[in-house]
Every structure is written in structure tokens, then in C-alpha cells.
Amino acid sequence: MQEFDKTLGFLFDVTKLRKMEETNLQRQCERVSDALGTSESQDIIAPDLFAELMILRDIIRKETTTVPKTLRYLKELFLTEIALRILLTFPVMWHQASEAFQS
Fold first, then answer.
1. Which domain of life is it from (predicted)?
2. Of these four, 1, 5, 22, 28, which has the most CB atoms within 10 Å of its CB?
3. Residue 47, Cβ density class (10 Å: 0-12 exposed, 13-18 middle, ≥19 buried)
């Protein structure tokens, strides 16, 4: 569980995400990509995840501190597609991460 939190925990803490330095965020995105990918395929591409999280950091309000609040805010901005992608990605990431850390 600690390894899971170390790899994916920053995605569930909006305040931490907002305060994270760019180089650290980039490293975290690479860690997520490495943990959830295989040599044959990468489900999450680190530079793409980094770019999307940088945009997300810039557009979310300071009082938006949780993932559900962030998704609601994105919906308010008519960024439903982005909110749905995030919402639908978490269960897949959760499943893949738990499989990766169990082996």
C-alpha cells in the first residue's frame, strides 16, 4: 500500500498536486507511466500526463481540494470530456496498480 501511495498518491491530493514543483511532478508522471506500463505498451504516457496535470493545476480554484470537487469544477467549466477521462481513468489505474504491486 505504501508503494501505491508513493506512486499514485499525488493524483488524489489536489492540494499536494498544486504545490508540487514541476520537476517533481514530471518524475511522478514517469513513475506512474513505468508502474502501469509494460515493455510492449504504455497505457499512460508520462509527458501527456504531465501536460494535462499542469493545465489542470492552472485552471482549478484554490478552494478545490479534493478529486470529486475538481471533477465537479471541470464539469462547471464545460470540460466534461476531461472530467470523464479523469473519472474513468482512476479505476483502470487503480486496478493496474494493484496488479503491478501484487506481483
1. Eukaryota
2. 28
3. exposed
Domain count, the chain: 1
pLDDT at 92: 59
Q: State the Cα torsion 99-89-10-47 to the nearest 10°.
A: 100
**Cα(56)–Cα(14) distance, integer angstroms:** 10
**Among residues 41, 57, 39, which one has the least CA distance to residue 49?**
57
φ, ψ at 99 (rounded to 5°) = -65, -40
What residues make up the domain containing 22?
Answer: 2-102
Angle between helices 67-76 and 80-102 (to 10 degrees): 150
Give the count of alpha carbons within 13 A of 59, CB side only: 19
Q: For residues 71 and 101, what is the distance between their CA atoms, to the nearest angstrom? A: 27
